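User: Hey, my collaborator sent me this sequence without any context and asked if I could get a structure. I don't really work with proteins. Can you help?
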Amino acid sequence: MASIFSKIIAGEIPSYRIAEDDRHYAFLDISPLAEGHTLVVPKREVDYIFDLSDSEYADLQLFAKRVAAAIGKAIPCKRVGVAVIGLEVPHAHIHLVPINKESDMDFRGKHLSPEADRMAEIAESISRQFE
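Assistant: No problem. I've predicted the 3D structure and written it out in structure-token form, which is a compact way to encode the shape of the chain:
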């Protein structure tokens, strides 16, 4: 059965798309830690990030680096934090979170619930910065 991320990539479930290429897809987390919290996934469904081939892993990280640069340009923050937890969805993914302090990356803390219009505005803002 396809993961929720595979369904998002296929367009079966809507998302706030940031960027994509032939092997990767980046979209806003719908329960973000901060505005601009983005998920970067390989299009090929692999449960555990370290099960990706070396070239797939490297390409995913390089794609995420480009997305992080776009987030940093679009969202005021000191850094874009990176986390790979991988337990919540059985599809490898990287969290990119705009942060100003370490506690901004606490996944146990409060998550935001932005309105759809705000999510679309954030996605567009980041997407415009993607190179």
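In plain terms: The mean pLDDT is 97. You can pass these tokens on to your collaborator as they are.
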